[in-house]
Amino acid sequence: MKIITVENYQEMSRKAAEYIVDKVISKPDLNLGLATGGTPKGVYKNIKEDHKKNHTSYEHVTTFNLDEYIGLKQEDPNSYYQYMYENLFKHINISLTQTNIPSGLNENIQAECTEYERKIVDAGGIDLQLLGIGSNGHIGFNEPGTPFTTKTHVVDLALSTKKANARYFDKINEVPSQAITMGIQTIMNSKEILLLVSGKAKQDAMVKLLSGVVTENFPASILNQHHNTTIIADEEAMELVKNMSYVR
Ligand code: PGA
Q1: How far is it, in rounded angstroms, from Cα 93 to Cα 91?
Q2: Whose alpha carbon is nearest atom 8 of ligand 1?
């Protein structure tokens, strides 16, 4: 894994947006995997600004989001559909028909999982997957203990994840208990991964990730075995890592 350390959240967001924009310019029909949460918001803001200023085109880009809550309507302000629309899609020239987010409303959720995998494969696979990391090491909504072999599947959210995401809801019991997420194998099949890490809350996660120990108890650890992963982390997230003798 290649690690780029930057000063702060703004710098991480700017660099990551630049990275993505460069990929879109060099491959206009890029299959781009996207993430939600607090971490990538600044990246999307920078992409939007670049689009306004430099007219980078997303006309031929196809996107695949990592995950979605089960049970929230698309128009729910907390659905990842809304998140993507408000933070990115409505600001760039991408047709919504080229954006893919697993549906947490399909009554046949197993069929939805199979169909989502098929769409990714039919598109030729994900060229670049943007990722955040949970403080418990989750990637997408793949919580600790998830087998590394999983494809898109349904998950019960860990209490720590519900707590972390409760900030967007009125009460913690409004946070859905389940989600549909790309599996760890789905993520690992991406040709390239860009992992963003910012802030104190992720310090322990960075230590575990960079220790090099690969375990299903810390899902992100599998990224140590991905052949083309870049981490952009800010100084705060890297604080405890600085003195580690072994950093891959
Ligand atoms: P965050 O979430 O960006 O809101 O910290 C990251 C994640 O849970 O993957």
Answers
A1: 7
A2: 134
